[in-house]
Design brief:
The chain has helices at residues 2-13, 40-43, 50-54, 57-66, 97-102, 173-176, 184-187, 235-243, and strands at 21-25, 28-33, 36-39, 72-73, 89-93, 112-115, 121-122, 125-128, 135-136, 139-145, 161-168, 171-172, 194-201, 213-218, 221-227, 253-255, 277-282, 286-292. The strands form three sheets. Strands 1, 2, 3, 4, 5, 6, 7, 10, 11, 13 and 16 form an eleven-stranded mixed β-sheet that branches. It has a five-stranded mixed β-sheet with strand order 8-18-17-14-15, with no helix packed on it. The protein folds into two domains: 2-73, no CATH class; 89-292, Fumarylacetoacetate hydrolase, domain 2 (Alpha-Beta Complex). The N and C termini lie far apart (47 Å). It is globular and about 55 Å long. It is an alpha+beta fold. This is Fumarylacetoacetate hydrolase. GO terms for molecular function: hydrolase activity.
């Protein structure tokens, strides 16, 4: 109990931020509170565009902390992706040791970064048309960039992050592994292959932002589970290393890696089938749900 109290004090003092959950409805930024969505642009001088609003992150959190605006009922069916149009989408390969082992690789000494093309980004509850080949699942915790910046020191990295959301790095393995080197970005960027949501939660809302439980279920079977504390390269380390090369922009996404349990490393391999539903959950954030056709 005492430890939780200390954590609560720390998270509310952290960076001077106010705990906030935000998403989108019809592409417009909303603050989500108690099952209600408050349209940010309707009740403030902040823009409806998510990227533009995140560029004014201090103003956004200050407004969110004091607004008394009335909201409208909202559910996961209504919400779109928390960032509908990220300019950059980074992803990290082999960031959990058990996944590196099941894939037949040694844990990397440096983060292995690739991209998902932004056109694959989708909302939390979707139908995904499966392409021919070997479609697979990869639950991931996704970092949403707020202030961003270039060459961000690790000790300041969390202040560049607007929050965390749930994601799936859906992957068509035949396309991904075709050729030498492999075509990671193309194999992971079919329409709907980057579902995210249901909301982004600011880091100060978590008891421990570096230790969140997560799991993916395919039907009644838990196919993946883990904790973000098991990452080889934690969120703040990734932000520092990526921003040392690429300036991070408001609304950018970082898919931080997946644990063991992907379908193509099973014996025999197991791939997504039409009619199946994949539910991905992260502690303190919520769930996303994809049905395949």
């Amino acid at each position: 109990m005492e430890r939780r109290a200390r954590q609560a004090v720390r998270r509310h003092a952290l960076h001077g931020l106010t705990a906030m959950r935000f998403g989108t409805v019809d592409g417009r930024l909303v603050l989500v509170k108690d099952g209600l969505a408050i349209d940010v642009a309707e009740h403030s001088d902040l823009p409806a565009d998510v990227n533009a609003a995140l560029a004014r992150f201090d103003e956004l959190t200050a407004w969110a902390s004091q607004t008394q605006a009335a909201g409208k009922p909202v559910d996961e069916e209504t919400l779109g992706p928390p960032v509908p149009h990220p300019r950059q989408v980074f992803a990290v390969a082999l960031n959990y040791r058990p996944h590196a082992a099941e894939a037949g690789f040694q844990p990397p000494e440096e983060p292995l970064i690739f991209t998902k093309f932004p056109s694959c980004i989708a909302g939390p509850v979707t139908e995904v048309t499966l392409p021919p080949g070997k479609p697979d699942w990869e639950i991931e915790v996704v970092a949403v960039i707020g202030r961003g910046g270039y060459a961000i020191p690790r000790e300041q990295a969390w202040s560049a992050v607007a929050g965390l959301t749930v994601g799936q790095d859906l992957s068509e393995r035949a396309a991904q592994l075709r050729g030498t080197p492999a075509q990671f970005s193309l194999g992971k960027s079919f329409p709907g292959f980057g579902p995210t949501g249901p909301v982004t939660v600011t880091p100060d809302e978590f008891d421990d932002r570096d230790d969140l439980a997560f799991e993916a279920r395919l039907g009644d079977e838990v196919v993946q589970h883990g904790r973000t504390s098991q990452m080889i390269f934690p969120v703040d380390d990734l932000v520092a290393r990526i921003s040392a090369v690429c300036p991070l922009l408001p609304g950018d996404l970082i898919f931080t890696g997946t644990p063991a349990g992907v379908g193509n490393r099973r014996t025999p391999p197991r791939y997504l089938q039409p009619g199946e539903t994949l539910v991905s959950t992260v502690e303190g954030i919520g769930e996303i749900r994809q049905t395949f056709r």
